[in-house]
């Protein structure tokens, strides 16, 4: 687990463009490793990862679906290779909507339909 955490820190510290080069020249294993840290990456990188048809990449993204930008979720849904991945994304979208509704109800006193 320490190596994985260190890899995540390394990804976040890369100069602009280097991550893009890793994606451009990396194989599926590199993409999957990067996707495991998607929630800490820039939105354009996440959206690029979401276009992958690789199962390991999609699974790593789906595990973090609740933390991904909405555009990446739609891309992931469009390229999803299994019902399991689609289910994880739909579950995350549903949870996000529920969280927003509860936030509005509790903090602003607004009805859930607002």
Instruction: Classify the helix fraction into a percent range.
Output: over 70%
> What's the helix count?
7
Label the structural class.
mainly alpha
Mean pLDDT: 85
Rg from C-alpha positions? Answer: 16 Å
How big a fraction of the residues is strand? under 5%
Using DSSP, what is the number of strands? 0
Low-confidence stretches: none
Largest sheet: none
Order of helices and strands: HHHHHHH
The end-to-end distance, rounded to whole angstroms, is 42 Å
Basic shape? globular
What would your notes on this structure say?
It is a single chain. This protein has 114 residues and is mainly α. Helix 3 runs parallel beside helix 5, helix 4 runs parallel beside helix 6 and helix 5 runs parallel beside helix 7. The radius of gyration is 16 Å and the shape is globular. The chain starts with a helix and ends in a 6-residue tail after the last helix.
Summarize the structure.
With 114 residues, the protein is mostly helical. The chain has helices spanning 2-13, 18-25, 28-35, 43-50, 55-63, 70-79, 83-108.
């Amino acid at each position: 687990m320490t190596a994985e955490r260190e890899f995540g820190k390394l990804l976040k510290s890369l100069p602009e463009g280097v991550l893009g080069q890793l994606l451009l020249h990396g194989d599926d294993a590199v993409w999957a490793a990067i996707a495991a840290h998607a929630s800490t990456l820039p939105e354009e990188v996440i959206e690029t990862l979401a276009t992958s048809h690789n199962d390991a990449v999609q699974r790593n993204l789906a595990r973090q679906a609740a933390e991904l930008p909405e555009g990446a979720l739609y891309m992931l849904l469009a390229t999803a290779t299994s019902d399991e991945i689609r289910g994880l994304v739909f579950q995350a979208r549903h949870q996000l909507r529920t969280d927003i509704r509860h936030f509005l109800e509790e903090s602003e006193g607004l009805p859930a339909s607002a």
